[in-house]
Design goal:
The structure holds 2 protein chains of 2 kinds. By secondary structure, chain A is mainly α. Chain A has one domain. In chain A, strand 4 and strand 5 form a beta hairpin. Chain B is 38% helix and 18% strand. In chain B, strand 15 and strand 16 form a beta hairpin. Classes of the chains: A mainly alpha, B alpha+beta. At the A-B interface, helix 9, helix 13, helix 15 and helix 16 of A face helix 1, helix 2 and helix 3 of B.
C-alpha cells in the first residue's frame, strides 16, 4: 500500500519542478525522499508495536499528505519546508498517540475535563492578548512567533467528550420518548446539550466570525447525537435551529452577509473584484481543469488568493482535471469508509461512537470545503484534511488517524484474531 | 443496543456517500458543463495570459487607423491604446482586472478564435496551434470622433453619432475619460485602477451608452409620435397660459413654460419653441396608455441590443404612469424619465430612417491575419416603430426647430444643409444646473448621421449643446 504513495510523491514533485524550471537537479528529489523515509519509519514503527489494526487507513492518509506536499511545492514553494516540518511533527504526534493512552476507555473517564479544555480552547481566540484575527476570522491564538488554530484540537476533544457523554446517558434515554403527535420530544438530558451546543455554535459564528467552524462544530454534535439515539428527528431539530439562527445572524452581522452574498452572486460587479474574487478565481480554475486537467504546473491556480490553504481542491482540479478531483474525493471517501468500518467493529459503545465521530470529522471537512470551492454551499475557511497547507490541521488529523488505528487495534485483539 | 448503533453508523455512512456524490456532481458541473462559458469570461485571467506570449489582435477604425494594438516588449507583448477619447469603448485587457469594452466583447476574435472560424478554435484547443490574431474593425470614423472630442472638450458629458441607415456608431465620446495604458502597465496598474474606481466622476463608465439622464424636451418626439398615430391633429391650436394646471384638483402643482408663454400653439410651434405646456396637454389628451406604449416601442426602459453594455433607463420609477401630474411631466420629458444618450440617438435615428429603428453596433467587421473578412457585424433593424408618414411629419417639425423663426435649436444650423433636431434642458435635482441636450440628424431629406449630445450641468442647457451637435454633423457630412 505504501508503494503508490512513493510513486505519487516522486512523480508529483518531478512533474511540478520539471514544469516550473527547465532543468531539475537532485534537489527535486530531496523533499519526497525525506517524506518517504518518514512514512516508512512510521510503517516500521507500527510493525514494531505489533500493530494489528486496519492496514488501509495509514497509507491513504499518507497519500493525501503527499498530494498536499506536491501542491504546496506547486502553489507556494516558499512554504514547502514548513509543511515538511509539520509533516515530521505530525508523524511524532501520530506515534505519541499510538503509544501514550494505554487504554482508550480511560479517555471516557475524563470527559468533563475534555469538555472544559475544549471549551476553553474554543473561546481562547476571543481573549484580547492571545487571540488573533487572520483573514477576517478570529480563530487563532498566538503561540511564540506563530499562530495556531485551537479549533483543530477542539474537534478531537469534542468527539471524545460526546462519545463519552452519549455513552453514559444512552441507557437512560433510549426509552421511548414522549411524543407530541408523531414527533418525539427529546428528553431533557438531550434537549439541554442540543440547546447549549446551538448557543455555543451561534456565539462562535458571531464572535469568531467563522461559519466553517460553526458548521463543523454543530455538525459533529448532531451526527453523534444521531448515532447514539437513531433519532433522525433530533438532527432535524438541530438543522432547523442552525438555519433559523443562521438567518437571524445573517441579517444582523455583516461578515456573515458577505459570505452568503458572495456565494449567491459571486459574479456580480460589486463582488467579483472584492469579496467574491477568491471564489470566482477558484471557479475559473475548476473550469480550466476540464476532464483531464491542464497538467501539473501548467494551470494558473496561483491567481487564486490564499490558494494553498483555502483552495487546494480547485488548484488540484485545474491541473489534474475532473479525473483527479474525483480521485481525490474517492480517496477521502475510502478513508471515511475504513473509519466507519473500524467503528462498526469496535467492541464498546464508546469506541464505536469515538471512531464514527472521528471519521465523520474528515468526511464533513472534505464536504464543507469542496462544497465551498465548487459553490455548492457558502465558502468557509475549513481545511481539506491532510491536503491543505496548515500545521495545526495536519497534526490533529494525524492524531485522528492514530486514534482510529488504536480503536481498530483494540477490536482486532479482542476478537482474538491477530 | 450495539446493533442500533451499528445500523446508525451504516445509515450515516450512506448519507455521507450520497453527499460525496453530490459534491462530485457539483465539481463535474464546473469542470465540464460550465467550462466553456467560464473559459471565455472576460475576467478570466487565463484568457489574457494567452495573449501575453502572442500578439493580441488590433482594434482599428473604419479606415484602418489603429486604436489599440499589441507591442513587443522585453517580457512578452503589451497592449497599447492610442486614442484616449475612445477609452470606454475599446476598454482594456488587463491580467489583473480582466477585460472591458471591445477587448471583452470581441475577446475571442482578438486571440484568433472568432466564433465564425471554428477550425481555429479547435486547432487552438486540441492541437495547441494558435492562429495569428486578426483585427476588429469599428464603425468609428476618425474625423467624426475627433470633431466630437473637440466639441465636448473638457465638459463633462457624452456625444454619440451613428449612421441611421445601419446603426454603425461613427463617434462615441464620454468625458471624463482615462488612460487605459495605465491600467495595463504592471508598474502602475494597481494604483491607476484603484484611483479610477474611487473617482467620483466615474471615468470608467461609458456615458454615451450607460449614462442615464432625464431627456427633457428631446423626449417630446415620443409624445408627438403617440399623438400623431392616435389621430391627434397637429394643426389644432392649444391654448398655453403659464403656469398651467388642467383643474383645481392639482392643488399647487403646475406645469411651467420655459418662456413664460401665453398664446395659441400647434405642434410645429410646440417643437420650435419647445413649449412644455403644449406637450403636457397633448399627453393628457392621449392618456398614459398610449404614451407608455410608444415609450416602450422606442425602447425606453429596455437596454438596447449593443455589442457593449448599455443602460436601460426607465419610463417612471414604478414602470407605469400612475397619476395625471406624472403623465403631464413625462409628456415633456421630465417626471421620472431616465434615458441614455444612445437611446435618444436611436429614437431620432428611427425618425431619420423612415420609422425603422436600426440596431446599434460599435464593431463592423472581424478580419483574420491575412485581412480577409471572416465576420461582418450587421445586426439589421430592430423593426418599424412608427409609420414613414409620422416620421416625415416629425422631420419637418424638427427642421423647423432648428431653422424656423425663433427656433430654440438655431445653434445646430449648418450652411447649405437642412438639419433636423431638438434641444433639451433637463432639470436636475434642486440646486444643480440642468443638463443640456441636443439630438439631431442631417441632411433632413436623406439623413446619413444622427448625433446625440449631452453636456452635464450647464446653465444654458440645450443652447450649449446644439452647436456641438452641428460640429459633429459637419465632420460627418464633410462640410
Amino acid at each position: 500500500m505504501l508503494v503508490w504513495v512513493a510513486a505519487l510523491a516522486v512523480t508529483g514533485f518531478v512533474a511540478v519542478v520539471g514544469a516550473e524550471t527547465s532543468a531539475f537537479g537532485p534537489a527535486a528529489l530531496i523533499v519526497p525522499a525525506v517524506y518517504l523515509v518518514l512514512v516508512l519509519a512510521l510503517h516500521l514503527f507500527l510493525v514494531a508495536q505489533r500493530f494489528h489494526g486496519d492496514q488501509v487507513l495509514m497509507p491513504v492518509a499518507a497519500g493525501l499528505t503527499a498530494i498536499g506536499l506536491v501542491l504546496v511545492q506547486r502553489l507556494a514553494s516558499d512554504l514547502l519546508l514548513q509543511q515538511l516540518s509539520w509533516s515530521i511533527i505530525s508523524a511524532g504526534a501520530f506515534a505519541a498517540t499510538i503509544l501514550i493512552p494505554r487504554d482508550l476507555t480511560a479517555l471516557s473517564r475524563f470527559k468533563w475535563t475534555w469538555a472544559l479544555l475544549g471549551l476553553l480552547l474554543l473561546i481562547a481566540p476571543l481573549f484580547p492578548l492571545i487571540g488573533r484575527e487572520i483573514n477576517g476570522a478570529r480563530i487563532w491564538i498566538k503561540v511564540g512567533p506563530g499562530s495556531i488554530e485551537p479549533w483543530e484540537a477542539v474537534k478531537l476533544l469534542l468527539v471524545v467528550f460526546f462519545a463519552a457523554y452519549l455513552e453514559e446517558y444512552r441507557e437512560v434515554l433510549t426509552q421511548t420518548p414522549r411524543r407530541i403527535g408523531p414527533l418525539p420530544v427529546p428528553p431533557v438530558p438531550y434537549l439541554v446539550p442540543i440547546v447549549a451546543m446551538w448557543g455555543v455554535a451561534m456565539l462562535v459564528m458571531i464572535f469568531e466570525k467563522d461559519i466553517g467552524a460553526t458548521l463543523l462544530f454543530f455538525g459533529i454534535f448532531l451526527a453523534m447525537l444521531y448515532l447514539a439515539t437513531g433519532e433522525a428527528f433530533y438532527a432535524l431539530i438541530g438543522v432547523v435551529l442552525l438555519l433559523g439562527g443562521g438567518f437571524v445572524v445573517y441579517h444582523l452581522f455583516g461578515h456573515v452577509q458577505v459570505r452568503v452574498d458572495t456565494w449567491i452572486r459571486p459574479f456580480d460587479e460589486d463582488l467579483r473584484f472584492g469579496a467574491g474574487y477568491q471564489l470566482v478565481q477558484g471557479l475559473y480554475a475548476l473550469a480550466n481543469g476540464g476532464l483531464l486537467g491542464a497538467g501539473l504546473g501548467n494551470g494558473m491556480p496561483d491567481r487564486i488568493p490564499v490558494v494553498w490553504s483555502d483552495f487546494v481542491f480547485d488548484a488540484f482540479a485545474e491541473e489534474t482535471g475532473l479525473a483527479g478531483a474525483i480521485a481525490l474525493l474517492a480517496l477521502n471517501l475510502v478513508f471515511v469508509y475504513r473509519g466507519m468500518l473500524i467503528a462498526l467493529r469496535a467492541p464498546t459503545t464508546f469506541l464505536q461512537l469515538l471512531a464514527a465521530g472521528l471519521s465523520f470529522i474528515v468526511a464533513l471537512q472534505t464536504l464543507v470545503i469542496v462544497g465551498g470551492n465548487a459553490r455548492l454551499i457558502p465558502l468557509t475557511g475549513i481545511t481539506l484534511p491532510f491536503v491543505a497547507y496548515g500545521g495545526s490541521s495536519l497534526v490533529t488529523n494525524w492524531m485522528l488517524v492514530a486514534l482510529l488505528l488504536r480503536v481498530s487495534d483494540v477490536s482486532t485483539r479482542m476478537r482474538g484474531r491477530p | 443496543m450495539t446493533n442500533t448503533i451499528a445500523s446508525n453508523i451504516r445509515t450515516l455512512t450512506l448519507a455521507l456517500a450520497g453527499a460525496f456524490l453530490v459534491a462530485s456532481i457539483g465539481v463535474t458541473y464546473w469542470t465540464i458543463f460550465a467550462s466553456a462559458s467560464l473559459a471565455n469570461d472576460p475576467f478570466n485571467p487565463r484568457l489574457i495570459a494567452a495573449s501575453r506570449d502572442r500578439p493580441r489582435g488590433a482594434i482599428v477604425d473604419r479606415s484602418g487607423v489603429v486604436i489599440a494594438s499589441s507591442e513587443k516588449t522585453a517580457d512578452g507583448f503589451s497592449r497599447s491604446y492610442k486614442d484616449q477619447t475612445l477609452a470606454q469603448v475599446t476598454g482594456y485587457a488587463s491580467l489583473q482586472f480582466g477585460l472591458s469594452g471591445i477587448e471583452a466583447a470581441y475577446a475571442d476574435s482578438l486571440i484568433g478564435q472568432d466564433p465564425a472560424d471554428p477550425v481555429s478554435i479547435w486547432r487552438a484547443r486540441y492541437l495547441g496551434e494558435h492562429a495569428a490574431a486578426g483585427k476588429v474593425v469599428l464603425g468609428i470614423d476618425e474625423k467624426v470622433q475627433k470633431a466630437a472630442a473637440d466639441a465636448l472638450g473638457g465638459k463633462r458629458g457624452a456625444i454619440i453619432a451613428l449612421d441611421p441607415r445601419t446603426g454603425a456608431i461613427l463617434a462615441s465620446v464620454s468625458v471624463p475619460s482615462y488612460d487605459a495604458n495605465a491600467v495595463v502597465d504592471p508598474s502602475r496598474q494597481q494604483s491607476a485602477f484603484n484611483a479610477l474606481q474611487q473617482d467620483g466622476s466615474r471615468p470608467l463608465i461609458n456615458r454615451a451608452t450607460q449614462g442615464l439622464y432625464p431627456p427633457g424636451s428631446t423626449f417630446k418626439v415620443v409624445t408627438a409620435s403617440a399623438a400623431l398615430e392616435s389621430g391627434f391633429d397637429p394643426n389644432k391650436k392649444l391654448r398655453v397660459d403659464d403656469p398651467y394646471q388642467p383643474d383645481k384638483s392639482w392643488g399647487d402643482y403646475f406645469v411651467r413654460s420655459a418662456s413664460h408663454a401665453h398664446g395659441d400653439f400647434n405642434m410645429a410651434d410646440g417643437f420650435r419653441l419647445s413649449e412644455n405646456i403644449y406637450f403636457a396637454q397633448v399627453g393628457l389628451a392621449i392618456g398614459s396608455a398610449r404614451l407608455t406604449d410608444y415609450a416602450k416601442r422606442f425602447g425606453v426602459g429596455a437596454a438596447p441590443k449593443l455589442d457593449l453594455s448599455a443602460g436601460a433607463g426607465q419610463l417612471t420609477a414604478s414602470g407605469s404612469i400612475d397619476r395625471p401630474t406624472l403623465l403631464a411631466d413625462t409628456s415633456y420629458g421630465q417626471g421620472e424619465l431616465l434615458v441614455s444618450p444612445l437611446q435618444m440617438a436611436l429614437i431620432y435615428a428611427t425618425i431619420a430612417n423612415h420609422g425603422v429603428m436600426p440596431t446599434p453596433h460599435y464593431a463592423t467587421e472581424v478580419r483574420d491575419a491575412q485581412d480577409h473578412v471572416i465576420r461582418e457585424v450587421a445586426p439589421g433593424p430592430v423593426g418599424q416603430v412608427i409609420s414613414a408618414n409620422t416620421a416625415a411629419t416629425l422631420t419637418t417639425m424638427l427642421v423647423g426647430a432648428v431653422s424656423g423663426p425663433g427656433g430654440f435649436a438655431f445653434g445646430a444650423k449648418i450652411p447649405g444643409v437642412n438639419v433636423a433636431g431638438k434641444t433639451g434642458t433637463a432639470e436636475n435635482r434642486p440646486g444643480e444646473a440642468p443638463h443640456g441636450w441636443f439630438i439631431g440628424f442631417a441632411p433632413a431629406e436623406a439623413p446619413t448621421v444622427v448625433v446625440a449630445v449631452i453636456v452635464e450641468n450647464t446653465a444654458e442647457g440645450g443652447l450649449t449643446a446644439a452647436p456641438l451637435g452641428a460640429q459633429v454633423m459637419r465632420a460627418a457630412l464633410g462640410k
